[in-house]
Amino acid sequence: MSTIVVPSDASKYSFPSTKGHVFRDSTIATLELYLKNYNVVYIYGDEGFGKTSLMAKFLERNSERCVAISIDPFVKYSYNEDSVLKDLYLQIKTFLGETVSVDVNVDRKEVQKLISTTEYFLKKNNKRLCFALDGFDQVVDEDDYYVKEILSILPIGMPYFDFVFTLKKGALEKSLNISNKKAINIDLFSLEESCQLLPDVPREKVNLLIASFSATPETLLTISRIIKKGGCVDDILQMNIDSTEELFEEEWRKSAQLVDKYSLAVCALAYSKSPIDERHLALEFELKDEQLDELKKITFLSLDRRGISFSSLGFAKFAKVKLSGIKSSAIRKIINIASHSQSSNENMVAVTEYYQELGDFESVLAQLTNENLELMLEESRSINDLLRQITIGIKSADDNESELLRLCYLKALVSGIKASGLLKSELKSLLKKEDVKSALDLTSDSKSNEERLQMLCLLAADYKKKEKPLPEQISRQIINLYEAIDPAFLGVEKTLDIAMDLLAFDSEKAMSLINKIDGLDNAGENKSEYAFFRSTLQALQKNPDVFDSYALDANNVSEKKRHAIEAIRLFKKGKPAAKIIEGLEDIASPGEKIFILRHWIKSFPESPDNHLLVEYVLDLAIKTTDYSANASFYSDVISCFSYMPCGDDAYEIYRKVYFQLPNIKKLGPTVSYVEVLLRIGEYEASLGIDEHSEENILEYILNEIEDKSVALAALCLMGTRINKG
Predict the structure, then answer these.
(1) What's the rounded Cα separation, in Å, for the pair 593 and 595?
(2) Residue 717 C-alpha from the chain's centroid
(3) For a FRET experiment, which of 51, 336, 544, 614 has its CA 20 to 30 Å from that of 236?
(4) Rounded to an integer, what distance in angstroms lies between the CA atom of residue 220 and that of residue 235?
(5) DSSP string covering 235-288, please?
(6) Rounded to whole angstroms, how far apart are CA atoms 295 and 263?
(7) Please, what is the angle between helix 487-502 and helix 527-542, to 10°?
(8) Cβ(304)–Cβ(370) under 8 Å?
């Protein structure tokens, strides 16, 4: 009799073995019922509550119509985008009854094309395909973007496709923003379910056990293994313990002889970021077949087709503490295994991070050659991925000046990569021709995920401009790619560039991205305010209508920025100053009014009636306690001095600034104070006053500024202005 081939047979991301687990048939039946009415079902449960086991049983009952991926949320390589995409591709091909080589190279474009073909197949045959995805909600925060990029490709919310996710944190549900959804919560085991897991233990003693310990699968499975190893229920109940970790200690004690014998291999399994293949483990540790069989008898180790690993993350953490003395030797063994068993990109990422964990910075730098970094960008297509590796290198190069300079240069170079002008031009041309399908295909040709985000934003802006509903798949791709953006790795300029393209799609997300600039060490004073206003001015210069109601919905923007955006809508070139001031009356915060006017004046110093804005903002700054009007503020505000005609208005402004000079000097920054003096001096020269002449300012710089680096910067500023003047 021939065996039925199901999609998961083609997967290397199979679910762990559920041998000895208890299956909650009623919960699975509820899940199957929900899938008849909802496109997405979330299975919520805390760590160790049995979410993966439940999903595995659901998959057994629905294997012919399911594409399944189970990732270890704490193992980075299990959610490498390229590897998971290939796995999905192979499973979908199997579902369609097509045979394909496991050595096939797959990219994002091919997966998207296959999903479109599958949608047609499902519609024609009145079928549905379910994606069962486990572990995607629990990845560490710094690697969340891997998951976002994988999810951006999947047909979530599209007809004929269903999705089941296991969740703990709930962040994934929020990011997907799907309306047709349902959630199931997994609780602790009941007495009946606990009895099924401990069949040889009397019911009354099972009741005592779950009263003494949490009735989670992990806890009860640990108790079950202790009993099978010869432990007694009465002894467990009489132990002076009240935590799962102390149960780990008891199970460890019962396997102590084998652990001592194979301690280095056990330690390597604890520190490994993925299961270790039996063959690779045996070769590296020179284990004969009988020794390998003996190692596998250690009760807290688990074996499936992916290899050998710990039965739970909690036990792996426990083992790391117990075997910390041989950590270095164990990790070097893992590095040897990884070097021979991972693909090129996965190998570099894995080995680099293992060396970092060892503190072997010389080896980290040896891994991060320009050739390897180029290979990573080619294979992962993500600037974020590349910058993360470069950042690891920079942290490892404190004592290696040449490598530090190389990596810092690379970081600056990569951070400055912007969306290809040629691609953008081609995209706009296709949109003019109303060729949306070709435009969407073109976004897949982007050199990086960040570039693809910008291209998709241009596509979304075109939909919005033409008042067409944006397809959910495009919206979801933008959201997922947006979630992957990390300003800490991209830097101020690149982050701002992306935020600019986001504005027309979702102003709140654009503002949120800009506000994240505040956390960057090199972003400077009033970082997000500067970035926010700069972005709006750039947008206005590119497209005067970008802040009209059809392009930007102020209701979608946070309360803090809403009034500012309403005011910015007034800021079109040629708008009378009186109208701008009138529009600012609806903004309650003096600080927001000040930073809007400050940067407007600096950006458009030649506006003919700027004196009205300058007088208004100076009065605000002097009267309010909500804003620190330092030298940088005054320098920006009087940048329009050279454009003002001499007269009463200019003189009144001069007097207001003149009387604030002692306070401006005190607040600094010193270089900005020097710039204020230079601007004041230029105006005084037109009146025949020499109080702040170039000679006097030079004397101040040379004699009063103690920090010579600051004095040098001030001299450079002064020299530049003199040359221009």
Answers:
(1) 6
(2) 39
(3) 51
(4) 15
(5) HHHHSS--SHHHHHHHHHHHTHHHHHHTHHHHHHHHH-SSPBPHHHHHHHHT--
(6) 10
(7) 40
(8) no
Residue closest to 414 by CA, chosen among 491, 518, 344, 520: 491
Closest CA to 621 of 649, 596, 650: 596
Tokens of 315: 């036990």
Contact indicator for 487, 520 with CB cutoff of 8 Å: yes
Report the amino acid identity of residue 661. L
pLDDT in tens, 682-696: 888 887 887 888 888
Among 686, 597, 579, residue whose Cα is nearest residue 636? 597
Most confident of the ranges 353-357, 479-483, 621-625: 353-357
Distance (Å, whole) CA 356 – CA 96? 44
Least confident span in 122-131, 150-159, 511-520: 511-520
Cβ neighbours of residue 180 closer than 8 Å, sequence gap 6 or more: 38, 39, 40, 157
Distance CA 677, CA 695 (A): 12
Q: Are 442 and 430 in contact (CB under 8 A)?
A: yes
Q: Residue 650 corresponds to which tokens in the numbers above? A: 């200019």
DSSP 8-state code for residue 557: S
pTM: 0.47
pLDDT value of position 588: 66
Distance CA(367)–CA(346), nearest Å, equals 12
Predicted confidence (pLDDT) per residue in 275-313, tens digit:
888 888 888 888 898 998 888 888 778 777 778 888 777
Among 513, 623, 525, 622, CA closest to 557? 513
Alpha carbon separation from 21 to 44, 216, 650 (Å, rounded): 18, 11, 83
Sheet containing strand 129-134, strands side by side? 66-70, 129-134, 161-167, 40-44, 181-185
If you compute the radius of gyration of the chain from its CA atoms, what whole number of angstroms results?
A: 32
- Average pLDDT for the chain: 75
Q: Which two tokens stand for residue 637?
A: 């505000």
Tokens of 447: 């050199």
DSSP H stretches of helix in 543-626:
559-568, 577-583, 590-603, 610-623
57-66, 81-90, 301-310, 426-435, range with the lowest pLDDT: 426-435
SS3 track for 611-672: HHHHHHHHHHHHHCCCCCCCHHHHHHHHHHHHHCCCCHHHHHHHHHHHCCHHHHHHHCCHHH
CATH superfamily of domain region 7-185: P-loop containing nucleotide triphosphate hydrolases (3.40.50.300)
**Which residues have CB under 8 Å from 414's CB, separation 6+?**
383, 386, 387, 390
Distance CA 566, CA 584 (A): 9
Residue 521: pLDDT over 50: no
The residue whose two tokens read 């009860």 is 220
Cα gap 276→279, rounded to integer Å:
8
**pLDDT bucket at 393, cuts 50 / 70 / 90:** confident
Maximum CA pair distance of the chain? 106
In tens, the pLDDT along 604-638 reads 777 778 888 888 888 888 777 666 678 888 888 88
Question: CATH 3.40.50.300 residue ranges in the chain?
Answer: 7-185
- Do the bridges between strand 161-167 and strand 66-70 make them parallel or antiparallel, or are there none, so unpaired? unpaired
Query: How far is residue 570's CA from residue 579's CA, in Å, rounded to a whole number?
Result: 8
Residue position matching structure tokens 């796995």: 87
Are 168 and 497 within 8 A, CB to CB?
A: no
**For residue 590, is the peptide bond before it cis, meaning its omega torsion is within 30 degrees of 0?**
no
Q: Is 291 exposed, middle or buried (0-12, 13-18, 19+ CB in 10 A)?
A: middle
